[in-house]
Amino acid sequence: MFGSLGGYLIYIAILMIIPLWAQSRVKNTYRKYSQVASSSRMSGAEVAKQILNDNGLYDVNVEPIKGQLTDHYDPRKKVVRLSEHNYYGHSVAGAAVAAHEVGHALQDAEGYSFLKFRSALVPVASFGSNISIFLILGGMLLTITELFLAGIVLMSFAVLFQLVTLPVEFNASSRAMDQVVSLGVIRNDEERETKKVLDAAALTYVAAALVAVAELVRFILMYVMMNRD
């Protein structure tokens, strides 16, 4: 499948281009709508706190964090952290990002199955992503198929983590849209703008999953060829 050097180089180029394109898309979309003020004039922090309070999650805090697009939800400390621009700003993009991160807090509160599964995968997925490539390379260089297979198995956990992340992120975005609309945070054409921000962010996860699956399939095919030889 990737026998020729030219084909292999094209394959590697595609694996590099897809994530870069997704990152560029989300940065450009975010930059555009971070300059558009929401009609509610609510800051990202206010949006997050209103959604949390409306859903009875009074034990979840909202804090600013340095950097751009560093927003995340920490389930261990029950904290929604928003980049300073989103925390203090009043943009459509800031409202969308804040609502998305609170969407993860809502998932955590109700015990959303995919979120629980992803959290359970973290240790083995982290270990697999760090060690698998060394096992695979070792298996290739030493022609030890068992070592190669062990690397593939460990890599599969990292890939599974990427795949499970997709429903977690899409569900958080869906919750975000429902919340900002029902609470009147955004209005009319802002719904379309908010969805563009959320969709662009989702592309990064889709791109990461595609790359991970492609790499896993490539190594599986190489393992099959090794066994044939």
From TrEMBL:
UniProt keywords (A-Z) are: Membrane, Transmembrane, Transmembrane helix
Q: Does the keyword Transferase apply?
A: no
Q: Which InterPro entries match?
A: Zn_peptidase_2 (IPR007395)
A Pfam family annotated for this chain is Zn_peptidase_2
Transmembrane feature ranges: 6-22, 120-141, 147-168, 202-226
- Note the superkingdom of the native organism: Bacteria
Protein's UniProt name: Zinc metallopeptidase
Biological classification of the source = Bacteria, Bacillati, Bacillota, Bacilli, Bacillales
